[in-house]
Amino acid sequence: MAAWFRALLLGAFLFPALVESLVRHYKFSVVSKNFTKLCATKSIVTVDGQFPGPTLYAREDDTVIVRVTNHVTDNVTIHWHGVRQFLTGWSDGPAYITQCPIQPGQSYIYNFTLTGQRGTLLWHAHISWLRATIHGAIVILPKRGIPYPFPKPDKEKIIILAEWWKADVEAVINQATQSGLPPNVSDTHTVNGHPGPVPGCSSQGAGYTLHVESGKTYLLRIINAAVNDELFFKIAGHNLTIVEVDASYVKPFQIDTIFISPGQTTNALLTANQGTPTNPPTILTSVPAQNATPVTYSFIDSLRSLNSPQYPAKVPLTIDHSLFFTMGVGVNPCDTCVNGSKLVGDINNVSFVMPTIGLLQAYHYDISGVYTVDFPANPPIPFNYTGNSPSNLQTNNGTRLYMLSFNSTVQIVLQDTAVIAPENHPTHLHGFNFFVVGKGLGNFDKNKDPQKFNLVDPVERNTVAVPTGGWVVIRFKADNPGVWLLHCHLEVHTTWGLKMAFIVENGKGPNETLPPPPSDLPKC
C-alpha cells in the first residue's frame, strides 16, 4: 500500500546455478546485528546477520537439512511456512506446538523433504514476534528437466515485503501484553529490507531498486513477510501475469495490483516493455485505499488452480468433518492490565492457551494434562456473526485440540465476526495445502452458499484471507499425521490466542505413521 513501490525496484538478485542433488545442507546462525533505518540504529535478531535472511534453494522432492544454532539470548524456532512436512512434523517449527524452543547456545537440525512441491514459500521464526526480522525466502525449483507451465522468464527476482519498527519489537509486544491494549503499529514497510524515502532522513536512500532490461521478462517471487499488514503490490505502468500462489500453479491471468496477506506468496511475470530514457524520473503509481475491496476481490476472484493432467486439483468431494469456525476478538478480565481487561483472540469462543511443552511431544508420549481433545466443531452459541456484537465479549481459555483420523476429509467454514470490530484474518494451516472452494460477505448460509462452491479448479493455498465481515470455505485431506496449528497470521491476533490445533492420527504402516522425534529435539 506504500506509494514508493516503483517501476524500477536496487540490486539485482543473483540466481545461483544448482547442481543435481537429493540432499541440500544449510547452516543458520541466529545472531544479533545493528541495522540503521529511518535514521535510527538498533540491534535486531537475524539469521546470519542478514535482513531479510538467506534464501533457501532446492528442487521438488529434495531433502533439506538445516542446522539452526542459537547465538542470542532469546529462545528461537524456525517454521518452514507452506512446506507440507509429510511425516516430518518434528521439523515444522512452531514453538510449543511441534517442539520446545531452541535455547541460547543450543542447536537443532530441521530435516524435511519437499515432496511434490515447487514454487515460492518462506521461512520465519515462530515464537513471539521474532519473525519481524527472522525471515527469508524458500525457492523450490521444478525437478531438473521439468519446465515451468508458463513461458520461461529471462531472470528471476525475489521481492520480500516486511515491516520495520524503530523500537525493539519484543519490547513492543511485551508492553502491549502487560497493558492489555493493542501494540504500536510499525513505522514503515520495507522491500528486501529497504524502507522508502523518509522526510528529513536523506541518508537512507530512496528504497529498493530492481534493475531491469528493456524487453526482458522477469519472474517476481513476491513474499509478504509482514507481521500484521496485508498489502497491495503494483508497479507503475505495468501489468503482472500471475502464475502461482503459495507454491501452487494457477491459470495465468493479467492484473495490475496484487493483494497479498502475511504468509502468502505470489509468483508474477513482469515484462519490462515501457522503455527507459536516460536519467528517468521516478513514476509513482496510484495507491489503492486500505479498504479497496473491489481491488482485492478482482485479484482473489481471478485465482484458479491450473488443474492440468500434470497438476490436477484433487478437491475432496465428500466430507467426513464439516466444521464451522468463527474468528474474532474478545475482552477478558486482567487484574494487572490498564483497564482491568485485555483484548484476546478466539476461534469458536476459545482463546488458545500455549502449553509449556510441545503438543506433539505430549501427544506422541501420551503425556496427560497438557491438552484436551474437545475443541468445538461449531460455535457454542450461534449469533448474528457480522451484525451487532453480543453483550458478553468474554471468551473461554483452553488448550483444546480437534482430532482427525488419517485420510479423513475436512471442510472448514472460516467466519469473521463483528465482535468489537470486523477484521480480515489471513489464516494459515500447518502441514497441509487446502482448496478455497467458496467465499462471501456477511454470514455463511449453509443452504444457499454451497451451491456456489467451486469444486473443479479452486485455488490451492496454505494461507487464506478471511474477508472482513465475511467468510471463506476450505477443504483438505488429513493425510499427514501429527499436530498441526491453524491460526491467524496477523501476529497480534496469534499472540491474543486466535489459533487452534488439529491432531491427525497415524494410519496403517510406516508410510502413514509419524516417526519418533529426533535425538536433538530441544527440551523445555
Automatic annotation (TrEMBL):
Coiled coil: none annotated. One of its GO terms (molecular function) is hydroquinone:oxygen oxidoreductase activity. Residues 1-21 form the signal peptide. Keywords: Apoplast, Copper, Glycoprotein, Lignin degradation, Metal-binding, Oxidoreductase, Repeat, Secreted, Signal. GO terms for cellular component: apoplast. Residues 32-143, 156-278, 374-507 form the Plastocyanin-like domain. It catalyses: 4 hydroquinone + O2 = 4 benzosemiquinone + 2 H2O. It is found in: Secreted, Extracellular space, Apoplast. Its cofactor is Cu cation. Pfam families: Cu-oxidase, Cu-oxidase_2, Cu-oxidase_3. InterPro entries: Cu-oxidase-like_N, Cu-oxidase_2nd, Cu-oxidase_C, Cu-oxidase_fam, Cu_oxidase_CS, Cu_oxidase_Cu_BS, Cupredoxin, CuRO_1_LCC. One of its GO terms (biological process) is lignin catabolic process. The keyword Transferase does not apply. It is an enzyme of class 1 (oxidoreductase). It comes from the Eukaryota. Its EC number is 1.10.3.2. Belongs to the multicopper oxidase family. PANTHER family: LACCASE, MULTI-COPPER OXIDASE. This is laccase. It comes from Quercus rubra. The lineage of its organism: Eukaryota, Viridiplantae, Streptophyta, Embryophyta, Tracheophyta.
